[in-house]
Give the backbone structure.
Amino acid sequence: MENKITTREWLPLIGMTVSAFIFNTSEFMPIGLLTDIAEDFRMTEAQAGMLITIYAYVVMLMSLPLMIAASRYPLRKLLLATISLFAVSHVASAFATGFWTLLLSRIGVAFAHSIFWSVASPIAVRLVKGPFKALAMSMIVTGTAIAIIVGLPLGRIIGLYVGWRMAFMCIAVLAFIVLAYMFFVFPKLEKSEPFTLSQLPVMLKNPVLIGLYMMSFLLPTGYYTAYSYIEPYLKQIAMMDDAWITITLVIFGAAGLLGSAAFSKWYDKCRYHFFRITVLGVAVVLMLLYPVSINHYLLVLLCAIWGIFVTAFNVVGQAELLRTTTMSTSAVAMSIYSGIYNLGIGSGSYLGGLICTHASIAYIGFGGGAIVLLSFIYCAFFLIPAMRRQQEKAEK
C-alpha cells in the first residue's frame, strides 16, 4: 500500500473541500445582506429574516429523509446532481423578482444543502485509502471552518460593492466551476449500503448522543437569536458605518481560527472544562452585547471573543459526536446533528425576529444569552456527567 495520497485521490478531495466551503458560505451569506434585501423589497429586517429561518427549517426537516433516499443512488451522479441544483437555485436567487421568489429559490438551495451534507463525509472517506480517511474528514471540516470564518463578511463585502443579487450570482458561478471540475475528476463510486430507519433505535439509546443533540438545538437557538440580526444591530444600535460593520464581521470570523487552535491545544488535556467554558463563554458574550455597544472598539473585541467561543463549540460538538458513535453510524448521526442544529438556527432567527418586532433589536443579546445560559446548565449538570459515565465504562 502506498504511503501517500495519489493525484487521482487528491483532485476529487480538493473538489469536495471547495464544495463544503461554498455550501456553507451560501448558508451564512444572507445574514450579511439582510439590510440590503429588506430595503430592496421594502420590508423589515425581521421579515427578511424569514430567509434564514425557513432555510434552516427545510434543512432540518429534509436532512434525514434525503440521506436515506440518497443512499440508494450512485454517489457520482448524486453529487453532480446536487451541485447542479445548488448552482441553478443561486441563479434563481440572483434574478428573483420578489421576496417570495427569492425564498423559493433559497428552498432549492436548502434541498441541495440537505443532500450534500448527508453524503459529504461518506464520500470523502471513500475517495482515499484507509490511512488517510481521517485526513479526508479533516479537509471537509476545513472547508466548513473557512466558510464560517469568511462566509458572512465575504457576502457583505460583495453585496456592498455590487449588490446582494451579484453576491448570489458569484456563488452560482463558483458552483458551476466546481461542477465542471468534479465532472472530470470525480471517480465512479459504488453506492453504499442503504440505511434504514430500523437502525435508528439502537443508535438513539446512547445518552451522550442525545445530550449532544440537545446542545445542538439549545446553543444555536440562543446564538442565532442575536447572530441572525448582527448586521442591522451594528448599524442601528452600535451606530457603526458600513466600513466598521465589515471590519467587525471579518474580525468575528477570523477570530474563529483562535477557537480552532485552542481546541487543538487544550481539548484533549481538559476535555470537560473546555466544553463548559466554551458554552458559558457564548452566554456571557451575548449578555454583554448591549452594554458594550457604546464603544466601537470594545464591541469589536467582544465580537472577536464571541467568534472564538462559537467556533470552539462547533468543533467540540463534532468531535464528541464522532467519539461517541461508530464508523457505521457516524454519517447518520452527523446528518441528524446537522438537522437539529439547523432547527436551532431557524428557531433562533425566528425568536430574534420576534424580539426585533415586539421589543427592540437592542435586546437580541439578552434573549439569546438567556437561552445559551440554559444550554450551559444542561451541559454542566446532564451532558458532561453522561460523558464521564460513558468514558468510565469504556475504560473498564
Q: What stands out?
A: The mean pLDDT is 87. Residues 251 and 295 are 16 Å apart (CA to CA). The first helix runs from residue 7 to 40.
